[in-house]
Amino acid sequence: MSASRTGAEPSAAAPAARPSPARAAATLRLRARQPLPLAYAWAAAILGGALLPFAFQPFDWWFLVVPAVALALASLRGRTLPSAFWLGFTTGAIFFLLHIQWITVYLGAVPLVALTAWMAVWWGLGGMALALAWRWGEPRLQRPLGAFLGMPALLSAVWTLRESLSSSVPWGGFAWGRLAHTQASSPLADTTSWVGFAGLTFVLAALSALLLQLVLHHRTILRRRLTIAAAALIAVVAIPAFPVETTGTIRVGAVQGASEAGLLAPYTRGEILQEHVDATGLLAGEDLDLLVWPENAAEFYADEDPATLAALDRVATAFAAPLVVGSVTRDGDDTYNALLQVEPGEGAVAEYRKRHPVPFAEYLPERWLFEPILDALGFLDLIPRDFSVDPSSANAFDVAGVSAGLAICFDIIDDQLAREMVATHGAEIILAPTNNADFGRGSAENVQQLAIAQLRAVEAGRALVNISTVGTSAMIAPDGTVIDRLQQYEPGAMLEDLPLSTTVTPGIRLGAWVDAALCIGAALALAGLAIASRGPRRSTDRRSADA
Predict the structure, then answer these.
(1) What is the value of pTM for the model shown?
(2) 430-458: per-residue pLDDT in tens?
(3) N or C end of the chain: which has fewer CB within 10 A?
(4) 538 class by beta-carbon count within 10 Å (0-12 exposed, 13-18 middle, 19+ buried)
């Protein structure tokens, strides 16, 4: 009886049976390059961190985000956890030192070093998680679908998890420098109207990981790699913005006083107020529905100072239109960074209190811990007061017959506040008064914040008024286009008919769910892969088939 019929091994002389093409495809395992030598990994981590700032404003080379993130991911492949931490730390430290150097203009090097070190720790922890994703995921995702879809999805979800945590933990986090912020002027900006900022970060990290995988799996047929890359790029770029229905228009005037209104800047009481009164004269004789001044334009305690209220009322009455203006207010022992709604002949009728004050700038968190430290170092004077937070303060005004969403300066980076103003309060337009005077002339901070505001307009499908004491002030269309813009540190005024809308985009309605799904998915995937990696080793054929 033949060996093949009895189940015995075939003789050495018998020719080996060739697997069918279908069987070969089913068991295909892609072969990738070995991990980078450690010296090259350090070079990739450093280069990735140095390249990434150029994807942001003021350079706006948004396409560089993909190679920069790909280099950072490549540096972590095959690394031990200690190495991964320090590689991630280094990438994050170089990125933030370059990206937020504007913080030193008036405040010195200490805030830059402290904030950079804190964010670099987050990047180091993220590096460890990404190294584990490589270690546990790559052996199980070796077929084309796993290598070119599964691994990019896993790596980008872990990247998004780290970014979401560092943007919210602790004390509200620091959401500056998210990957999504690079895309205000790119074809990918429309993506935010569908999936929000976290979703756009995921897409960018996934494209970066896909690029890296295409390079690593260089032995794969060239035509297949080009097809995968082209299909992924076309699929993302071809996504149009979510259609937004216009319900009318509102004629908005916005005034930039070019005031030295920095936190520690010396000034004469009433000076900032008068500079904005003077700049408002540029709109004299114009018909408008709403007038907007920047954060802090009415200085301190405008709602309880008769002279200031009288000046604001004269401005509102001259245009027969409400005025939205920033002022520091107080209630007992609590002090607030606020916006006031001033109606002609009525005074201040509504107040919004900033919901996302900047930790270690507008207030000192855990003062019992940090005050002795900062005092001993001589830096306590950099935080002259603690602004309070009123969680019940609604971030929208019913003004000029419409609902206007409100974001004071740092509020604009807070995803939850953007969703609240539109989905909860029905904002038809967004007003974003800000004060950028702490960051110097020609500051990159101003244009970085403007880019965030542009993306926020796209995400919400709302026109947005970004009005600053010193710039960069701009009127932004719902598609993120800058309609009008003022020069930095020059008095000026803008007047535009801006569209209104009540459409709620998926980016607003579902953005929190997208963020949560990506973060939970990343955590569950890592946990599942960790458990699988501890299971009994299977044969090569079995691992190949499961991949």
Answers:
(1) 0.90
(2) 999 999 988 877 789 999 999 999 999 99
(3) N
(4) exposed
